[in-house]
From TrEMBL:
Pfam family, one: Lactamase_B_2
Domain Metallo-beta-lactamase, chain residue ranges per copy: 11-217
Protein's name according to its UniProt entry: Phosphoribosyl 1,2-cyclic phosphodiesterase
PANTHER family: EXODEOXYRIBONUCLEASE WALJ, METALLO-HYDROLASE YYCJ-RELATED
Amino acid sequence: MRFSVLASGSNGNAVYIEYGETKILLDAGISGKQLQMRLQAACAREMSDLTAILVTHEHDDHVRGLTQVCKRSHASIYMTEGTYASLPDKAKLDDESRFHAIREEQSFTVGDIQVTPFAISHDAEQPVAFRFDTPDASLAVVTDLGYVSDRQKALLQNCDAYVFESNHDTDMLRAGRYPWHLKRRILGDKGHLSNVDAGYALIDILPESPVEVYLAHLSADNNLPDLAELTVEQIVIDARPRLAEVLKLKRTSRQEATALTEISRARV
């Protein structure tokens, strides 16, 4: 399996995943032009190559470019019925026959990839995160949630890579310029994971084998990449020192895609 985080942040999110001939776009939260540019630059792929488009929830930073991607591909489109019903007008689908409704914890296949959506706590209508499994690798993309439940931790065991939310530093957020109602939303059970939240959740999730964690959805105003990485690493390694040798923390960006990365247990 190979993947690239094309964009990650409050102004746009998208992840590209491929295995064999199966090519998936998870979320389309940046413009169609930017999606095409980043697909070409990082993955040497076109929108027309896509097998499927998956949507986590209806917020603009996840569906901004959905209409444009749909027009430039013949991909099937998967999301929950709640997300579909709540799409903003500019993201409505012209061809409803391409829409496939998915349900939490009901796995389905897209080509050669098994996809498992699971419920998350966020201020959206029926939002989900996703786990992707192939015979030799597993990837989970988990962002936009206020907390990580025991059930979610169980579903996230034994992946080879995680794209995992580390949205804010709580002290920076509390002292920052955001109005209180927005701070309360972010800090709430239907908001976003802090660096500390992410670290403590990962303690219970990460395997003992080599694993890559891409810290995602970092706030431009209430976080710093160095701070996020240092906080998560310190919490995880203090609790599970053996992970120091196998854990690799990676960064994501709003402005550019990560390199197309291969994950495979066969390489370990």
